Amino acid sequence: MPNRFVIHNSKTSLKSLVKDAIDNFESYSEILGDAERNVIKIIPLDGEKVTIKSFRIPNVINQVAYRFFRKSKAERSYMYANRLLDLGIKTPFPIAYEIRTTPFLFKKSYYVSELVECDLTYRELTTDFNISDHEDILRAFTRFTYKLHKNGVNFLDHSPGNTLIERKEKGYEFYLVDLNRMEFGEMNFETRIKNFARLTIHESMIKVMSNEYAKCTSEDESEIFRLMWQYTQEFQNRYHGKRKLKRKIFFWKKKYKEEG
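^ that's the sequence the OP posted. Answer follows.
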């Protein structure tokens, strides 16, 4: 599989501009987010602003896997975005993706989408309880998550930074981002509740979401809360355990280098 560039049928007139923007990715300076692993830049394109996400080069094992056996994160992001839009679920419009390879290894990939200028993300709900419409947004977000589940969308990265929120005259619009990890198909009760596990550490937010999800599903609120809180705590324990292990590993690596 040689290098591959795919652009949405409705955006073919922008093909040369998009390819040029990807080729000159390093020259753009406006970065979106923390850029810890992957880098997202805001790019002017044909009078509009788009985002280009540059995925970091994977380790050697995954370079082989992505080269021959697995779809790249950029391709999956593009595919899943189109599928979400077909289901009536909002996400920044997918414009294009590009993957770059050698004969035996996968190297770089890029995903291009329209920029959504949001009012806030779900993350702000977890840090600022003084937001005037905090509970209204949280309940609307829970109904949005129910819509995902009803449509068989299991967003595996359903975490605080991955939902953009726009305030509208009547209600709110929610946009999913960071789409490369999704599963599609019927979800059982426990899988649906487990999908809330990464969203917050605050019991008060879990109580609101479990109450609203019970209204959506007519399922037992106390059982929803029990499982939602249980899965949240289990996720937090795993998360902090992994961080503790990484700190130990990097400490010994640093110590080894200093002694060497």
